[in-house]
Amino acid sequence: MILYTTDGSNPKTNGSEYKNPLTIYDSCTIRAIAVKYDWKDSEEISAAFTRAEGLSESVNLYGYLMETDTSNPWTVVTDVSHDGVSCARSGVIGHGGMTWLQTSMRKAGTVSFWWKAACEEAEEEDGETYWYDYGVFLVDGVEKAKIAGNDTGWRKVEVEVSSGGKHILRWEYRKDGATSYSPDCIWLDQVQWIPADDSGYTLTTPEPVPYSWLRGYNLGLDSDFETAAKSLNGKNTSGKAMSVWQDYVAGTDPTNVNSVFTAAIEMVDGLPHVTWSPDLNTNGEVRVYTVFGKTNLTDAAWVCPTNAAHRFFKVKVEMP
């Protein structure tokens, strides 16, 4: 079988079995090796991949296509962002112009995002607001939110889309016929779409994590599910930090540092018997468990399948 890692670690000791083609969303180094019991291991190969960030990735909306006005396109920037990484900035336009960014969703759900503006202020007079240069968010052509001001700071917007079918989510920056305030734009970051049926799952983690599972632990609600699933959970194994997505695979509680995956061994009729907890092969939850063994701790490699001569064991848990 072929074992591989995407975090640059040793595939012989930390690898997952290659079963299907990989989809990579982040820059990473893949290391791989072919192994077979009682055979000599293959030479290890490695390759580094660098993600060229696009508009969808810049606003954390992985797996969705962001389209933009080709004549006045939005751009990816790193000098301003809500998440400290990158965001999308509206295109450059003159007086009376407009620039747009949009994506499409299916089903009912909730969209949330962060945006800020640096443009001409809106004014109120006689109880009426006059908008000059401003950003606007629309769902299927219907206005849902506006923003304007010479330094608004980051503001969060959350809009419920109650009906099914296809929906167009669109952000526009519009200018009137006179007056500018530098830099004369809006910024957009951390767009998140949560289907009403909780059918969504992360796309940038080594294993997809259901939104419903993260929501059950109140994770990802204030930022985005991708970041929450990849965040560290305060646990470690052999000195290696663990991430929340690994809790999903192991079946442990990501909010409790004492909730860990454990293995035990006992001798039954003179043979080693290995057990583990939690065992997610009940109640419709299925995981794949692989037992590795060594005769001596000083042996270089863990062996699978194990045999009666082994006295040291470890269990790897992964998704089917």
Task: Describe what this molecule looks like in 3D.
The chain is built from 5 helices and 22 strands. The protein is mostly beta strands and 320 residues long. It has 3 domains: 51 residues, no CATH class; 141 residues, Jelly Rolls (Sandwich); 57 residues, no CATH class. It has a 5-stranded antiparallel beta sheet with strand order 5-8-15-12-13, with no helix packed on it. It has a 5-stranded antiparallel beta sheet with strand order 6-7-16-9-14. The chain has a 4-stranded antiparallel beta sheet with strand order 2-1-3-4. A hairpin with a 2-residue loop joins strand 17 and strand 18.
CATH architecture of the largest domain: Sandwich
Give the biggest beta sheet.
Answer: 5 strands, antiparallel
User: Order of helices and strands, N to C?
Assistant: EHEEEHEEEEEEEEEEEEHHEEHEEEE
CATH class of the largest domain: Mainly Beta
Helical stretch count? 5
Strand order of the largest sheet: 5-8-15-12-13
Helix content: under 10%
> What is the strand tally?
22
What is the global morphology? Answer: elongated
CATH fold annotation of the largest domain? Jelly Rolls
Structural class estimated from helices and strands: mainly beta
Strand content: 35-45%
Report the average pLDDT across residues.
Answer: 90
Termini separation (Å)? 15 Å
Radius of gyration: 25 Å
- In total, how many domains does the architecture comprise? 3
Unreliable segments (pLDDT under 50, ≥5 consecutive)?
A: none
